[in-house]
Amino acid sequence: MDHEDGEFFPDFTAEAEMERANELFSLGMKYEGTIAIPGWNPDMELGEDEERREYTLTVVMVREEHASRVIYARHAAYGDEQCCNLLLEPPASPGDGVRISYYDCETQCNGTMEVGTGEIRGTVRQLVHGETGFYHPSNVVTHTFELAPCRSMSAAKHLHGAHILACLERARLAAILVQSCADVLPATALQDTNVIDAAVAELLSKIPWREVFQSAASRVEDVCAEMRAQAR
Questions:
Q1: CA distances from 99 to 9, 90, 105, 143 (A)
Q2: Residue percentage of the chain with pLDDT more than 70
Q3: Which member of 24, 104, 142, 151 lies 3.0 to 4.6 Å from 82 by CB, making a disulfide possible if both were Cys?
Q4: Angle at the Cα of 70 (from 8 to 223), degrees rounded to 5?
Q5: DSSP 3-state assignment of 213?
Q6: What is the mean pLDDT of residues 212-229?
Q7: How far is CA 122 from CA 45, 71, 83, 185, 210, in A?
Q8: Average pLDDT rounded to a whole number, residues 206-212
Q9: What is the DSSP string of 119-188?
Q10: Chain-centre distance for alpha carbon 101
Q11: pTM of the full predicted structure?
């Protein structure tokens, strides 16, 4: 980690380790590594080496709820991205690593963070789809995840600020579009595209629709994670 992120040593107390872990899960922080989730390859025998996939964890929201710090992050692997609530617990003994757990509707991750490096390692469990309480067979040696920070806290803050500005710009363009189309009847526009003003057509081409839909889908995942956290 950068010098700006601080230097920590193995003789830190459990309280200091928790403080450092919370810093390492600041808004915008991103972690990269690999993961092997049980059940993704049904043809494999338990004990065989599961194919590891690229894995990311990105902090998307940090806020205070009922006088407690609540962290939401999106984790992504196997072409799927979902949001979850990160739970941090003090190490069982100083130096053992801060305990971390998080889960979405199917995947459950439990591990520890070494606060000196920010590295996270742990095990993975996977619910059988549609079967509440039933898990795919797993192996604590094979079905694991490992992550390491891939950006400093200052870079995370900068990138998050840029992301917010991009979201605001999309919202501004969408608001202008809605106002421009206020007097156009939907049925008319569908039957005759010539009724759309040239300026409106140009505006339509400027709106990054893929990012708009991806952002909306991600926000739905965020809300689901909030609901799961509140239901505990």
A1: 18, 6, 21, 18
A2: 59
A3: 104
A4: 135
A5: helix
A6: 67
A7: 21, 18, 18, 56, 34
A8: 71
A9: EEEEEEEEBPTT-TT-B----TTTSEEEEEE-S-HHHHHHHHHHHHHHHHHHHHHHHHHHHHTTTS-HHH
A10: 13
A11: 0.68
